[in-house]
């Protein structure tokens, strides 16, 4: 049999499919994914907010130290890591909110808030106290808010750009997406803004907020999240689940709206499948049970947040929303504990793979890739150091990165 000839004919037949796979599914995004996005109403954002959030988070732990320590199992090492994180990097990703967190206050008020927020963020960037990533959420492209949303976006970009460039780490969030056409329109906005402002091509990127049932199931019964991702023309960096808008839209009563409702799990499973292999990252939403007030309320808020953050991590959502500085301690405690709890198992399995030994678990290459990615995420967020990983696995962090993102996908 002419095997070479057969393969050649197959290569020709599958040329388009091979190209589509490479273009549409490039694999995981390179670089660090933040563990959360902190949402701040636009009129509440002023220069130095990140530092103030870290101080407030540190103070609430000091005020309720015994309670917090009890909730994390008395782990003094974990507590120390959380406090250190709150001191040197309390917020990993910030979103200045001109949508639900701000509301409709009229054009003059919103214009003034946009200019003030952009000026404050520019001050923090120049002072070196801005978080690693940041951006805004503006009003949706639905007809009633379209003009206001675009106006806010452009005005903010004009305030934050410098020397015909956006600051590294800048991203915008498009809420309440209901159609693929809206994503196509968002890609067009980005292109036209870049041309008008002299920005580098494809420097303006955006996240899609999945918070309407129309994003999950279109009018013909098909799931629209995947087409939305690909309609973004490579500009979509993330999918963020909107807990309360989505839950309310499908008729879930207020008392039962939560990240762990079965309807939420279904929507997020669709998001997860749509984003797999595309490089588009996933973020879970928020909980509105805040750890503020007396000790009973603080306990309830912290217990709820710890449980939900851990649950999201176990389901492959490595990022979520935080709405209050008092949620930062439990965000980091739950995240650090998740990665530290899984490190020994990951190390054992990676070591067995490296030595080509058979162990208690027979891992496939795809799982080894996931194990390496798990360890890398733990280093990125501060759960453990690259030195600790090297000491326990024999791999340096670069070798693990190559395992997590092999040359062929």
Provide an overview of this structure.
By secondary structure, the protein is an alpha/beta fold. It has a single domain (36-339), classed as TIM Barrel, CATH 3.20.20. Helix content is 55%, strand content 9%. It contains 17 helices and eight strands. Helix 6 packs parallel to helix 7, helix 8 runs parallel beside helix 10 (225-231) and helix 15 packs across helix 17.
Summarize the structure.
The chain is built from 17 helices and eight strands. It has 409 residues and is α/β, with parallel strands linked by helices.
CATH class: Alpha Beta
Give the overall shape, derived from the CA principal axes: globular
CATH architecture assignment name: Alpha-Beta Barrel
Task: Tell me the strand percentage band.
Answer: 5-15%
Low-confidence stretches: none
Query: What oligomeric state do the depicted chains represent?
Result: single chain
Question: Mean pLDDT score, rounded?
Answer: 94
N→C terminal distance? 30 Å
The CATH H-level homologous superfamily: Phosphoenolpyruvate-binding domains
The main sheet orders its strands as 7-6-5-4-3-2-1-8
Q: Indicate the structural class.
A: alpha/beta
Order of helices and strands: HHEHHHEHEHEHEHHEHHEHEHHHH
**Level of helix content?**
40-55%
Number of strands: 8
* Number of discrete domains: 1
Count of discrete alpha- or pi-helical segments spanning 4 or more residues:
17
Q: Tell me about the biggest sheet?
A: 8 strands, parallel
């Amino acid at each position: 049999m002419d095997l070479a000839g057969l393969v050649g004919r197959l290569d020709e037949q599958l040329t388009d499919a091979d190209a589509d796979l490479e273009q549409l599914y490039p694999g995981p995004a390179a670089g660090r994914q933040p563990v959360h996005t902190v949402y701040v109403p636009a009129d509440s954002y002023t220069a130095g907010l990140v530092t103030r959030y870290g101080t407030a988070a540190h103070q609430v732990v000091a005020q309720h130290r015994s309670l917090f320590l009890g909730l994390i199992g008395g782990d003094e090492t974990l507590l120390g890591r959380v406090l250190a994180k709150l001191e040197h990097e309390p917020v990993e990703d910030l979103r200045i909110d001109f949508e639900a967190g701000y509301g409709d206050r009229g054009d003059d008020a919103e214009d003034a808030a946009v200019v003030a927020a952009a000026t404050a963020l520019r001050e923090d960037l120049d002072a070196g106290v801005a978080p690693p990533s940041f951006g805004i959420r503006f009003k949706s492209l639905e007809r009633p808010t379209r003009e206001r949303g675009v106006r806010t976006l452009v005005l903010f970009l004009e305030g934050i750009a410098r020397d015909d460039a956006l600051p590294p780490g800048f991203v915008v969030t498009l809420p309440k997406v209901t159609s693929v056409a809206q994503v196509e329109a968002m890609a067009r906005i980005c292109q036209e803004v870049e041309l008008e402002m002299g920005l580098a091509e494809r420097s303006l990127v955006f996240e899609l907020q999945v918070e309407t049932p129309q994003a999950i199931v279109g009018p013909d019964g098909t799931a629209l999240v995947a087409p939305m991702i690909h309609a973004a023309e490579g500009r979509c960096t993330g999918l963020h689940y909107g807990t309360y808008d989505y839950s309310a839209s499908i008729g879930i009563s207020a008392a039962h709206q939560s990240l762990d409702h079965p309807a939420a799990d279904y929507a997020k499973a669709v998001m997860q499948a749509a984003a797999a292999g595309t490089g588009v990252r996933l973020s879970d939403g928020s909980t509105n049970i805040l750890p503020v007030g007396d000790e009973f309320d603080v306990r309830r808020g912290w217990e709820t947040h710890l449980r939900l953050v851990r649950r999201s991590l176990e389901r492959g959502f490595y990022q979520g929303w935080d709405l209050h500085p008092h949620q930062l301690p439990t965000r980091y405690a739950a995240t650090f504990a998740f990665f530290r709890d899984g490190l020994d198992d990951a190390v054992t399995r990676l070591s067995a793979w490296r030595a080509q030994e058979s162990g208690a678990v027979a891992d496939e290459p795809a799982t080894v890739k996931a194990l390496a990615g798990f360890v890398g995420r733990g280093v990125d967020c501060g759960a453990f150091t690259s030195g600790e990983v090297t000491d326990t696995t024999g791999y340096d962090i670069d070798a693990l990165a190559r395992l997590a993102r092999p040359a062929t996908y």
